Amino acid sequence: MVKCGGYVSVNISSIIMDFSGKVAIVTGCASGIGSATTDLLLKAGARVCGLDISQPSLQHERFTFQKCDLGSASSIKAAVKACAEANANRIDVLANVAGIMDGFASADTVTEEDWQRLISVNLTACMLLSQAVLPHMQSHGAGSIVNVASRAGLGGAAAGAAYTASKHGLIGLSKNIAWRFHETDIRCNVVCPGTVQTNIANSIRSETFSQEAFEISRPFLEIHASTSKTTDIQPVDVANAILFLASDLAKRVSGVVLPVDRAWGAV
């Protein structure tokens, strides 16, 4: 630590990724952004409780796994309860990463079943998870929730009606949580990735894919995919943003929506 004029210069590298003693819950831990976030948190010293419908291959002394169906309120509550009980009721970080994609179906073609499925997993689950961890954060006087939305949460042309609505809703939920707890050290922020190479596309049901709606969105999507530079966003790039927002470096940052998309969100 060095004093420069009236300010104190801190060795940032000594605190940037120190999650020692902290407990984090990461949804979607088995693949993609969730897996990358889990890896970085473990490297930073955190204890991580991973939630997913699929069993991850990861084995680590500070990693535990809870199978969780994000479409089920009872499954969510049971998973968070198990994570808390395994860590002396301490939960410092919640990273809501898991999500599913739609088939570009617009408001005139989306089925009620698909609408309910997308809203349930992409929005309602994040609310229920936040609701379940907040008492633990309140009891310890601090905590960080980081929700992963999408470029689709910043406009209307990047996905179908259900996915777009779910991500806009997630941003609104996050801002509401941030303001509700703005007088405390409990924070909530959002990361909005652009196109990232993950397996979320596997959640699109082929029978619900709307080619007509996709073709209308194609010019906007191709703005992002027009150069090799915009298609090289990796899961770890998004995970780095999640860790920053969860870390003490961002302890005065709450209610922020952070795109990770090589300026696609500026269009």
In brief:
Helix content is 37%, strand content 17%.
List the helices and strands and how they pair.
Layout: E1 2-4, E2 7-9, E3 23-27, H1 32-43, E4 47-52, E5 63-67, H2 73-85, E6 93-96, H3 112-140, E7 142-148, H4 161-180, E8 185-193, H5 211-224, H6 235-246, E9 257-260
Parallel strand pairs: 3-4, 3-6, 4-5, 6-7, 7-8, 8-9
Antiparallel strand pairs: 1-2
Helix pairs in contact: 1-6, 2-3, 3-4
Explain what you see.
The chain has 267 residues and is α/β, with parallel strands linked by helices. It contains 6 helices and 9 strands, in the order E-E-E-H-E-E-H-E-H-E-H-E-H-H-E. The longest helix is centred in the middle third of the chain and has 29 residues, at 112-140. It is 37% helix and 17% strand. It has helices at residues 32-43, 73-85, 112-140, 161-180, 211-224, 235-246; strands at 2-4, 7-9, 23-27, 47-52, 63-67, 93-96, 142-148, 185-193, 257-260. The chain has a single domain, classed as NAD(P)-binding Rossmann-like Domain (Rossmann fold, 3-Layer(aba) Sandwich), CATH 3.40.50.720. Helix 1 (32-43) crosses helix 6.
